[in-house]
């Protein structure tokens, strides 16, 4: 798997690198540690300015100073680790580099762990997650500074609705060499419609909800069985709620999960520009790291 680790030397970026190092323990990852520096005068050229050579030299040294410890951290657990840097706007720079190397996954750090910070997320992380054509892992630090970035064994929450995107999200995770003791919670939400009808329709809608919930449960059980062949410690949740994203984020908080996995189903022009409402909500509100799977779009 080709991975682009975007880093700016911040605490959040270092946590993202540590998370990746734990994932890479049993994986064959080819990692590019990549940074984008915002050059003075950008987007206008500064190369002709007399101060530019000295600034460029110092900026290269500054970036190397935080990239090298990350490279060393990953060197023993990854197949290859390379270093990259560009100048300009961080988001286009990261996305362009991901396309250039054919990245399967982009890893970025989130802004913070408080409720307010989760809502803000961070413009770079948010934009990369929205516009990337490959899978994106947004790593959120634990609220406790001395806590590990991932539990032992890890705890995954995978959102599953039977769509191509969610099936491929499961497939992507099963392709990774997760520890066999990894705890997997599969959550299939039976969304309840808000009551816009009069009481004469209540009995009909209630019966329809029961039938839909049963279909969702059966499909969830089928997928749980597939997961159990690789990761036997799997359980299924089928909450019946009005808000799918809130149900996923709440389950992650209740279960103390390390990672939420959601599939991004965007195929249209709008899908390319915007994350689905559920995915966006989970990304903003989940208390842990979030993996947005676009595995099914790599062959399109």
Automatic annotation (TrEMBL):
CDD domains: USP-like (cd00293). Coiled coil: none annotated. Transmembrane segments: none annotated. It holds the Pfam family Usp. It comes from the Bacteria. InterPro entries: Rossmann-like_a/b/a_fold, Universal_stress_UspA, USP_A, UspA. Residues 2-140, 155-294 form the UspA domain. Belongs to the universal stress protein A family. This is Universal stress protein. It comes from Rubripirellula reticaptiva.
């Amino acid at each position: 798997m080709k991975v682009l680790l975007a880093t700016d030397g911040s605490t959040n970026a270092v946590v993202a690198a540590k998370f990746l190092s734990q994932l890479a323990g049993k994986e064959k990852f080819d990692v590019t540690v990549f940074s984008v520096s915002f050059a003075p005068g950008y987007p206008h050229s500064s190369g002709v300015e007399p101060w530019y050579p000295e600034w460029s030299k110092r900026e290269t040294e500054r970036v190397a100073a935080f990239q090298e410890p990350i490279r060393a951290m990953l060197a023993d657990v990854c197949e290859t680790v390379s270093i990259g840097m560009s100048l300009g706007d961080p988001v286009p720079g990261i996305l362009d580099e991901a396309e250039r190397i054919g990245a399967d996954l982009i890893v970025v750090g989130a802004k913070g762990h408080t409720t307010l910070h989760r809502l803000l997320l961070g413009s770079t992380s948010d934009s990369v997650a929205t516009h990337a054509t490959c899978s994106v892992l947004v790593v959120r630090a634990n609220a406790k500074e001395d806590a590990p970035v991932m539990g032992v064994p890890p705890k995954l929450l995978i959102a599953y609705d039977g769509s191509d995107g969610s099936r491929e999200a499961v497939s992507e995770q099963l392709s990774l060499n997760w520890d066999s003791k990894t705890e997997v919670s599969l959550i299939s939400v039976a969304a309840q419609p808000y009551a816009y009808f009069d009481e004469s329709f209540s009995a009909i809608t209630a019966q329809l909800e029961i039938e839909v919930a049963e279909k969702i449960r059966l499909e969830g059980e089928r997928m749980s069985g597939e997961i159990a062949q690789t990761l036997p410690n799997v359980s299924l949740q089928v909450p019946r709620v009005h808000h799918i994203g809130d149900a996923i984020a709440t389950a992650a908080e209740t279960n103390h999960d390390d990672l939420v996995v959601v599939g991004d189903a965007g195929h249209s022009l709008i899908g390319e520009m915007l994350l689905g409402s559920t995915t966006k909500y989970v990304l903003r509100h989940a208390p842990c790291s979030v993996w947005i799977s676009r595995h099914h779009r790599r062959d399109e």
